[in-house]
Design goal:
By secondary structure, the chain is α/β, with parallel strands linked by helices. The strands form two sheets. It has a four-stranded mixed sheet. It has a two-stranded parallel sheet with strand order 1-2. A hairpin with a 2-residue loop joins strand 3 and strand 4. Helix 5 crosses helix 7, helix 7 runs parallel beside helix 12 and helix 8 runs antiparallel to helix 12. The chain starts with 12 loop residues before the first helix and ends in a 5-residue tail after the last helix. 43% of the residues are buried. The structure holds fe (ii) ion. The site of fe (ii) ion has 7 residues, from helix 6 and helix 9.
């Protein structure tokens, strides 16, 4: 186990902005919005205009409400400070520019303080449909809208807080499955239909079609089954899990903590 976190976990929108980051500090950058080229803004616009008509039909209600709240537009790449100004009063979350992939400790530290590590680069036009690493499209269109939902935001912050205190690689890998099958590829049943809330589904047309066409098997969410299902990162998902409400994953995370994390200090 790591020592107790040096930060105090944000518990309300008001205190989230003042949590200093320690492990993540070397990875924080400024977003230079003025440096984006017209072509980069055009790529963003094409991605958003192509994706949103589908998501208006396929995404869950909470995602669409969050999307409207944070003010994303096809007209230009998002300014993360402006996104955060809209988001923070709602749930305490913000979108914080980082330089790339973060080590576990830095990543979980940011989640625990409701600061989502957000890429600022945008994919090339030659790679519109697939990139191996998250860019600003995946992070802001895929992840950030759900952070406007209180229960989802509380779940994700608690996930980060718990994982921040863990050094056991096998335990982190198992808890990583819960992240994968919720935050990245989560589904929810609404009005008799399977809707999306996971960022990997939001930002991938191929994953979306696989779900809607029945290629991907959709099972009812079960913590035991999620924890027992290894993650496959380089192929269309064969099985995903649908929740009934966001309370379910909030409770599942607390259940996982009680069952798997050996020491509470
Ligand atoms: Fe992601």
């Amino acid at each position: 186990m790591k020592p107790a976190p040096l930060i105090t976990r944000a518990t309300s929108p008001a205190d989230a902005a003042v949590c200093p980051l320690v492990h993540a500090a070397p990875y924080l950058i400024e977003q230079n919005s003025g440096a984006y080229t017209p072509e980069q803004h055009a790529v963003w616009g094409d991605l958003v205009r192509k994706r949103m008509p589908h998501l208006e039909e396929w995404a869950c209600l909470e995602y669409l409400e969050g999307f409207a709240l944070i003010g994303l537009t096809a007209d230009h790449l998002p300014n993360l400070a402006e996104v955060s100004q809209r988001l923070r009063p709602r749930t305490g979350w913000s979108a914080v520019p980082v330089s790339g992939f973060l080590p576990h400790g830095a990543f979980f530290e940011m989640l625990s303080s409701r600061q989502f590590p957000t890429a600022t680069w945008i994919r090339e036009r030659t790679s519109l449909d697939y990139i191996p690493q998250p860019d600003i499209f995946h992070d802001t269109l895929g992840h950030i809208p759900m952070h406007a939902h209180q229960v989802f935001g509380d779940f994700l912050a608690h996930y980060g807080s718990v994982c921040y205190g863990i050094d056991d690689h096998d335990l982190l890998e198992r808890l990583g499955r819960l992240f994968w099958y919720t935050v990245e590829f989560g589904l929810i049943r609404q009005s008799g239909k399977v809707k999306f809330y996971g960022s990997g589904v939001m930002s991938s047309h191929g994953e979306s079609l696989a779900i809607l066409q029945g290629v991907t098997e959709v099972r009812d969410f079960s913590l035991d089954e999620v924890l027992a299902t290894p993650v496959k990162v380089d192929e269309i998902q064969k099985v995903l899990f649908a929740i009934e409400s966001f309370d379910q994953i909030y409770e599942a995370m607390h259940d996982a903590e009680r069952r798997l994390v050996p020491v509470h200090v």
